[in-house]
Amino acid sequence: MAAKKRHQNQNTNANSESSNTTRKKVGKKKENKEDNGVSGDLKYKIFIAALAIAVGYMHRNHVYGMFERDKHFSHLSNLERELSFRTEMGLYFSYFKTIIEAPTFMNGLDQIMYDNITEYPDTINVLKRFNLYPEVALGIAYRWYDSIMVSMNKPTKMCWTVNRGEGMSPVQSCEGLGEPSYFYVEAVFFLNGLMMSVFFLFGVYLSGNVYGGILAVATFFYNHGEVIHTMIKRKDINHCTRVQWTPPLRESFAFPFLILEMFLVTHTLRTKSPSYLHSIGIALAVVSFMLPWQFAQFALMTQAVAVFCTYVLGYIGSHKVKVILSGLFVGLLASYVLLFGNEMLLTSFFFSSLVTIFIIVSLEPLLNKLNFRVAIWAVQGALLVAGTVGIKILIAKALRVADDEHIGDIFRSKFSDFNNFHTMLYTCAPEFDFLAAETYWKLLKTILLPTVILIIIVFSIRVLKLEYNIWKKTDLEGEEIVLEGEHRSKPHADYVYHMFQLAAFTLMAVIIMRLKLFWTPHLCLLTSLLASRKLFGWIGGREKQYAAVTVLLACMTIEGIQNIMHQWSIMGEYSNYPLEELVEWIKVQTPKNAVFAGPMPTMATVKLCTGRPIVNHPHYEDAGLRARTMKVYSMFSKKPLSEVKQNLLDLKTDFVILENSWCVRRQKEGCGMAEIWDIEDKKNRHETVQACTKLRDKPEPHFSRVFRNDVYDVLKISKW
Question: MF terms per GO, please (predicted)?
Fold first, then answer.
């Protein structure tokens, strides 16, 4: 039997016959006290639930209000609303549109599972490739809503004519849930309102009182983002979320389920002896997180490693690890099945890390024979790295999958002089750069970063003190500690996990700025620990602690309110007449089976607004699509026009859209299209004129211009 060391306060009662009556009276008083406690507990829970609903409603209104003020969405025409969904957003919304416009739901589902419009002439299952379950779910919901309202003879939208001025024709604008774009964005904002409710409850649970939830929510709002106006354009800095600007992006649907999943993992870590029912809850949350977003696997991999590190330090035993990892593993396998065997899930670092950790945990009896804790840690760490990388490489080679090779190339380019065409398209985008110094400064001004650093320091001191006392076997009264066996435990295992999780999210954000959308919310969540009596009870009584927290929150509010007011001050109105003119021309002047190629963001718009087949698009995570895009983007290289033409003919293209700004734009040094192509196409780097310049000035004889406005040229490819 495993040796257990428990340290508990025990009370002893004197045995006396005369105390029987007294004990009964005490027992009765205790029963009455418990009844009052249950009543008070119920009122407290109702109060917490009401606050959760309130903050969720506030957040929904907050993000929707910014979205509306930024675009004046309610006054846009149906076409303008679709045009406002640029890049990937337009691609995702197009599949929702396909499902709701099909004669039946099954017909719409069939169209997206056997799609030959998105990567013409190939037929692909976009439900497998693009994580489109949100669009499927919303498509079902919209069709149900519409049919119910029609059967009840209830109107679902109101329409009117909007005069746009400046010589532009009036447009019809409709508002209400019967309008597909309205229904879509309302669903996204409702989901993110629910996310804030769960976030509040998470803060309450983590800290042990309502003040912790208020702190977490307040700091989230204060660090939501801010807007800097420059002479050139508006620069949006999103710290916690960007759902208010880009509702159709995958993270808008997925992130709320990550918060829920982390909540369930935290609850499992706190439970003394969790069952595999906990695994089922985690698995359901994992599936809900993974199905909408291809990047979910990276966040979940860091979680698996964070839980493993908590286990390595002895704060949880093998049983809890297996319960959590079982949930992660079942969720991953279920996602693999629901995504029609998407090979990228099996070749992910997430899958290989789960397999490796399961193996290491199973080897616990063998590793414990080393009898030297540092040696055990070294072996476990080496096995984790070697197993995770090795298993991933073996599976990728066995399945011959190269779709995620660009991920390794991106990280390689971050820390070396390695670059190629595909990595440059990523790393030249600001969101894939290293975390900007300005972000640290902004989080310092709202006192979020100093607060979390203080929490880390206090918690680290507490952990070191606990470890010292365990080593000395002193001053452990009131603590329940099990040092051996599969149910071993130490206090605050959930806090230890969150510290490791924060470290992982910090590393992700520093390397790729886009991933700070994991990091900043986690910083906000950890501020709830300021209200924890376990961590900050040393300040004094509750009144003193809460007074100190109130003062700190007031200081945060000074800068936080300014950030909120900045966001509320954004007033705009979406208008992109050159793109609208292009789309209208395509719909009227080209056959419905005309095939288009061009810049990835524009191709998504062409597919959404015209339904014409396209050969490339912004969803860049597929090796075949990257090869296609490289052929299309040869029009920005220095290759001869004959070679550019042949590349496009290989893809069965009829028309190519030339966006003039792409020929000359340069986001930073080395990021012009000509410079990117010079890395890849050394044969033609000595040329001085880009193909796009020739196409703009004199496309004949390989191409003929059929449309031009201030921004776009449409060139028809000569088929001889």
Answer: mannosyltransferase activity
How many of the other CB atoms lie within 10 Å of CB of 557? 16
162 falls in which pLDDT band (50, 70, 90)?
Answer: confident
- Whether 528 and 619 map to the same domain: the answer is no
Gap between the Cα atoms of 658 and 696, Å rounded: 8
Task: Note whether 266 and 494 are within 8 A (CB).
Answer: yes
CB within 8 Å of 411: residues ≥ 6 apart? 511
Question: Which H or E element spans position 704?
Answer: strand 703-708
- Specify the pLDDT at position 470: 83
Would strands 158-162 and 171-175 be described as parallel, antiparallel, or unpaired? antiparallel
The domain total for the chain is 3
Residues 666 and 595 both lie in one domain: yes
What three-state secondary structure class fits 705?
Answer: strand
Is residue 140 a part of any domain in this protein?
A: yes
Claim to verify: residue 264 and residue 382 sit in the same structural domain: yes
Q: Which of 154, 178, 202 is the last residue of a domain?
A: 178
Q: What is the mean pLDDT of residues 338-344?
A: 93
Q: Is the CB of residue 225 less than 8 Å from the CB of residue 240?
A: yes
Task: Residue 446: name the closest of 522, 559, 563, 550 by CA.
Answer: 559
pLDDT in tens, 214-257: 999 999 999 987 443 333 344 445 567 889 999 999 999 999 99
Best CA proximity match to 63, nearest among 202, 221, 235, 293? 221
- Residue 220 and residue 126 share a domain: no
Q: Last residue of a domain, which of 535, 568, 601?
A: 568
Residues ≥6 apart with Cβ < 8 Å to 564: 221, 222, 224
Query: Do both 517 and 620 map to the same domain?
Result: no
Residue-wise pLDDT for 78-136, tens only, equals 999 999 998 999 999 999 999 999 999 999 999 999 999 999 999 999 999 999 999 99
Q: Give the pLDDT score at 22.
A: 33
Q: What is the DSSP string of 654-668?
A: SEEEEEHHHHH--SS
Could you list the residue range(s) of the whole structural domain that residue 93 is in?
Answer: 72-178
The predicted model scores a pTM of 0.90
Element containing residue 238 per DSSP (H, E): strand 234-238
From the number of C-beta atoms within 10 Å of its C-beta (0-12, 13-18, 19+), residue 140 rates as middle
Instruction: Say if 418 falls within a structural domain.
Output: no
One domain, residues 393 and 536: yes
Token pair listed for 136: 């499927």
Give per-residue pLDDT as tens, 485-525.
Answer: 677 778 899 999 999 999 999 999 999 988 999 999 999 99
Confidence (pLDDT) at 477? 60
Sequence-distant (6+) residues with CB within 8 A of 296 are 254, 258, 289, 290
Per residue in 640-667, is it b (16+ CB within 10 Å) or e — as a string? Answer: ebebbbebbeebebbbbbbbbebbeeee
Domain-located, residue 428: no
Residue 608's domain is classified under what CATH number?
Answer: 3.40.50
> Which of 439, 564, 449 lies closest to 514, judged by CA?
439
Mean pLDDT of all residues belonging to the chain: 88
pLDDT at position 264 is: 98
Is residue 35 one of the residues assigned to a domain?
no
* Same domain? 501 vs 531: yes
The span from the CA of 706 to the CA of 713, in Å, is 8
How confident is the model at residue 186, as a pLDDT?
96
Give the CA diameter of the chain.
Answer: 113
